[in-house]
Amino acid sequence: MATPGKDAADSTGSATRELSQTGSFLTTAQGLRLPDTDHSLKAGERGPSLLEDFHLREKITHFDHERIPERVVHARGAAAHGVFEAYGTAESVTRAAFLRAGERTDVFVRFSTVLGSRGSADTVRDTRGFAVKFYTGEGTFDLVGNNIPVFFIQDGIKFPDIIHAGKPHPDVEIPQAQSAHDTFWDFVSLHTEATHHVMWNMSDRGIPRSYRTMEGFGVHTFRLVNADGETNLVKFHWKPVAGVHSLVWEEAQIAAGVDPDFHRRDLADGITAGVPLEFELGIQVMPDDGTETFEDIDLLDPTKLVPEELAPVQLIGKLTLDRNPVNYFAETEQVAFHTGHLVPGIEVTNDPLMQARLFSYLDTQLTRLGGPNFAQLPINAPHCPVNDMLRDGMHQQAVPTGIAPYRPNSLDDGLPEVAGAGDGGYVQTARPVSGFTVRENPVSFGDHFTQPAMFYRSLSAVEQAHIVEAFTFELGKVFEQKIKERQLTVLANVDADLCAQVAAGLGLPAPSGTPVEDVPVSAALSQVVVEPGPIAGRKIGVIADDGSDLAGIRKLRTAAEKLGAQVLVIAPHGGTLGKGRSVLPIDRSILTARSIEFDAVLVAAGTAPDTDIKTVLLLQEAYRHLKALGAWGDGGRLLQAVGVDLDGPGVLAGDVVAKAFIDDLVTALGLHRVWDRADAVMASAV
Ligand code: HDE
């Protein structure tokens, strides 16, 4: 028997009265029309407000309770709606219906940082959350992943410890959304199983360019079950169609101040501009042969990854995010993910981190969303029939019929029935469990350094240099000498060269360790691309003034928009350039423009070589951040005036905006950064 109000596959839910500013008359929550909402009821014009003013009290009381507790981790997030379309390539390993060929499933995806408060900045160095809610016909499946494939801890019981260490110091609540402080490094230097995750945090992965250019990982090993009951062990991956790209550190720092909403703005703007975010879902499939180990890698250890060279990522479907939320609070804030939201064909393993998560996600919603009925909130409501026997509780919105919410019963005709596997029931695969109760890790969890060394040695020289810089920066912010020294001993066991460079930067002696010398490398871990990728979502800034070649800018814009990229005109003033029919709107005045917004900066022909300090800063930053620069016609005069070598790497030139010039720009953007300029930047004063 269905429960009225609960079995609606209605994503907007029962609370979907049109609560917007578009209705006719303003009312109270009870529907009473109001003549005035600007003046409280007073005893005379200059008199005190009256207790009987129920509208004043309702308005203020509701306001007083507008905030709910922010998430204890991942408080800052941004989300989008979309659709997932399955290729059917996973059918041999899972019976999950939403993964059958051609199946389309509604999704809601929330991206987040981990450490910062809800109002903190997007571009801080941190792990990013990548939580996907699939509203499948068999029930909701949540894949609650991160942009880093490994985790800090092997056992969930330590989660409060790592988070207490990473959050601001409890006395002064400083620093916000940062790991560059004593308690974080105190913990991770004492707790070497965190080393692998810390290496990823200190790499470019800790500062993604955008959510669009970020990989995602399920982290844990899952057990997938096919229609014949055969099982495989699987790791989930999200591969961004736009490629994997990051910010450079100075850019991330500037953005944190200039535009703390950098990532959420990019997400929302991209979707509004009709350029959806796209990711392919992939799986690494390992045999479930009873060992839960693959090529000597313990698959239950969440600090280990499986190199893609050993188990290739097989693509099984495509996620497209193309719709922004209508209301941040109702959707992005109230969405409740849970690792225990599973569907037939997808099961968990004994990974001790995953096991603890299975408890935590349900538990946390009780405080955050105020009770056990959060699944009735529109954003959390499944898009398939719900027929539970859960009753009452805070914020109950359903009006259940029937008198026998228990089983067995005879009064409601013995309903609801239970479903076996043949009826789509979630029947867990029987797996053997034996052993003594212990508080111990398997010996195989004890190697904390081989994979961090593999990660470091798999990266390009410039990526390695960024890791050195990140460790030196973060440890440079630590006050306690003994913590810095201890972390250097950790690095000495990863890679002697890395340790020596960080030690030199800190002005400390490099300790010796016993790094594993003979580690395999995995090319898939580097994000420096050699083949240009797509440029959708990229932004090209064009510096122009009243004398510029506006036709050239228009031509450039048309070409860029065809590829999903945007051209933004930067001028000395706001308003428009040109006259009459050739008028061109200015997108940014030089006062509101900052280099971080643009992936490439060009100067239009005819633009005066005016070395205004803001223009100089913009071009110098773009140069330092290894972005493509360029000019057509005599626009190069401005680049020269700020000291850019017109023949240097990543500096584009052309007489006019012609095909060759556009092609060069597209290639440069597709390669993401001008890596060839890195050495010159280190050596130059620009
Ligand atoms: Fe989470 N985590 N987590 N986590 N996590 C939460 O759930 C927790 C872990 C992740 O956008 C909380 O609803 C424990 C790994 C994401 O709403 C909380 C442990 C991974 C999000 C929680 C972990 C994640 C969360 C906070 C160790 C990557 C944001 C509010 C056992 C695979 C979801 C909430 C969103 C959120 C607990 C470890 C990813 C408290 C106890 C590993 C993306 O329940």
Automatic annotation (TrEMBL):
<keyword id="KW-0349">Heme</keyword>
<comment type="similarity">
    <text>Belongs to the catalase family. HPII subfamily.</text>
</comment>
<feature type="region of interest" description="Disordered">
    <location>
        <begin position="1"/>
        <end position="31"/>
    </location>
</feature>
<dbReference type="GO" id="GO:0004096">
    <property type="term" value="F:catalase activity"/>
</dbReference>
<keyword id="KW-0408">Iron</keyword>
<comment type="function">
    <text>Decomposes hydrogen peroxide into water and oxygen; serves to protect cells from the toxic effects of hydrogen peroxide.</text>
</comment>
<keyword id="KW-0479">Metal-binding</keyword>
<feature type="binding site" description="axial binding residue">
    <location>
        <position position="361"/>
    </location>
    <ligand>
        <name>heme</name>
    </ligand>
</feature>
<dbReference type="InterPro" id="IPR018028">
    <property type="entry name" value="Catalase"/>
</dbReference>
<feature type="binding site">
    <location>
        <position position="357"/>
    </location>
    <ligand>
        <name>heme</name>
    </ligand>
</feature>
<protein>
    <recommendedName>
        <fullName>Catalase</fullName>
        <ecNumber>1.11.1.6</ecNumber>
    </recommendedName>
</protein>
<keyword id="KW-0575">Peroxidase</keyword>
<feature type="active site">
    <location>
        <position position="74"/>
    </location>
</feature>
<dbReference type="InterPro" id="IPR020835">
    <property type="entry name" value="Catalase_sf"/>
</dbReference>
<dbReference type="InterPro" id="IPR029062">
    <property type="entry name" value="Class_I_gatase-like"/>
</dbReference>
<feature type="compositionally biased region" description="Polar residues">
    <location>
        <begin position="11"/>
        <end position="30"/>
    </location>
</feature>
<feature type="active site">
    <location>
        <position position="146"/>
    </location>
</feature>
<feature type="binding site">
    <location>
        <position position="159"/>
    </location>
    <ligand>
        <name>heme</name>
    </ligand>
</feature>
<dbReference type="InterPro" id="IPR010582">
    <property type="entry name" value="Catalase_immune_responsive"/>
</dbReference>
<feature type="binding site">
    <location>
        <position position="368"/>
    </location>
    <ligand>
        <name>heme</name>
    </ligand>
</feature>
<feature type="domain" description="Catalase core">
    <location>
        <begin position="27"/>
        <end position="415"/>
    </location>
</feature>
<keyword id="KW-0560">Oxidoreductase</keyword>
<feature type="binding site">
    <location>
        <position position="71"/>
    </location>
    <ligand>
        <name>heme</name>
    </ligand>
</feature>
<dbReference type="Pfam" id="PF00199">
    <property type="entry name" value="Catalase"/>
</dbReference>
<dbReference type="GO" id="GO:0020037">
    <property type="term" value="F:heme binding"/>
</dbReference>
<dbReference type="GO" id="GO:0042744">
    <property type="term" value="P:hydrogen peroxide catabolic process"/>
</dbReference>
<dbReference type="InterPro" id="IPR024712">
    <property type="entry name" value="Catalase_clade2"/>
</dbReference>
<feature type="binding site">
    <location>
        <position position="110"/>
    </location>
    <ligand>
        <name>heme</name>
    </ligand>
</feature>
<keyword id="KW-0376">Hydrogen peroxide</keyword>
<dbReference type="InterPro" id="IPR002226">
    <property type="entry name" value="Catalase_haem_BS"/>
</dbReference>
<dbReference type="InterPro" id="IPR041399">
    <property type="entry name" value="Catalase_large_C"/>
</dbReference>
<dbReference type="Pfam" id="PF18011">
    <property type="entry name" value="Catalase_C"/>
</dbReference>
<dbReference type="InterPro" id="IPR011614">
    <property type="entry name" value="Catalase_core"/>
</dbReference>
<dbReference type="Pfam" id="PF06628">
    <property type="entry name" value="Catalase-rel"/>
</dbReference>
<dbReference type="GO" id="GO:0005829">
    <property type="term" value="C:cytosol"/>
</dbReference>
<dbReference type="InterPro" id="IPR024708">
    <property type="entry name" value="Catalase_AS"/>
</dbReference>
<dbReference type="GO" id="GO:0046872">
    <property type="term" value="F:metal ion binding"/>
</dbReference>
<feature type="cross-link" description="3'-histidyl-3-tyrosine (His-Tyr)">
    <location>
        <begin position="338"/>
        <end position="361"/>
    </location>
</feature>
<dbReference type="GO" id="GO:0006979">
    <property type="term" value="P:response to oxidative stress"/>
</dbReference>
<dbReference type="InterPro" id="IPR043156">
    <property type="entry name" value="Catalase_clade2_helical"/>
</dbReference>
